[in-house]
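Feature request disguised as a bug: please show the residue count (359) next to UPF0575 protein C19orf67 homolog isoform X1 in the output. Example input:
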Amino acid sequence: MATEQWFVGPLAAGSGETPPLDDLESGAQPCEDPSWSPPPGGPGNPPEAEPEKDVQGQLPQAPTSTLSPERPAPGPRPTPPRLPWDTMFSPITEQLCYLLKKADDFQSYLLYSRDRVQKEQLAKAMPTFLQMCEPYFLYLEAAARSVPPVYGALQELIRKGLLEISQQLTLRLEQLVLMYASFGFVNLEETDPLSISCFFCGRFSISPSYEVSIFRYCAPAAYTASRFPRYLYKKMRWNLETTPEASSREQDSHVDYYFLCYRDTWEDTGKSPANSCPQIQKLWSIGRWVPLGPAEDDLYSWILCPQPPGDYQQLLTIGFEEPSHMLATDLLVQILTGQEGPARPPSAAGPAAWAAQGS
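Example output, currently without the count:
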């Protein structure tokens, strides 16, 4: 997958290029350079005694090998110090601070500016700011999740650090968009083409043929415009794009849609939220969009349809607590890969397989 280059400088300061991150594991040495060998006078290489001369005063002939069989091998080389965590993540955290500072500026102008014209200009700039964050999301998600990883076998600690940074920026942008929507400068209605109902927050690959894009809904959105299935609301969307292999007969790529949704269980009983237990109001799950129409060959039905109808193929029930942005994507990856390897495209399985998976 081609990932946009966001950082000009290396991840590690003090070197001309980025060292492989799998060399940062405990006990591993960053390089096999001869300069790491201990000095001749060190404990690993004791100083050699001056060679004795023979009776004629001549030096004996040099041996063919520098080490005799009886001579012990040099001692272990000293383990070089590991790169500090702050040094390795410095370019990434600096960029995060810059984007968070821009978000704070947008919020300050909105709250304290008395010039309505300036506020409207900021509202128009909001989509531009979200697009400005996209390369950063691309870097974080691809470096942490893509197979094969961008920088080799990432340690779990580094992977978690990258994803937590991505989650922190995602939540901040969601908060900012909701604030602008509360002032009436941003529309969150999904059926409006000019709205900011959701925003892009990363892309990664799970195999050479499968690529996942992540989208976050600023506010829960009805699963369909007709509210069918009933009381189902979307919070995240993942686009799974399948690219046919060179040996395949298929020529066009295909996209399947997966959602993080919750269902209002209190609406099934007809009771108001005040009379229901707060812990059982929302049941979270991950499912797949199953299109029900319009017909693909009927252009007019697509134009007249505000939102295509679709069914919800529930794949995983999470529980009554909303999963974090990072955990929800981890769960989706487990569903798609089956913990063993990339599964075949769900669209190729057919409705019978969908029903079997959801049961």
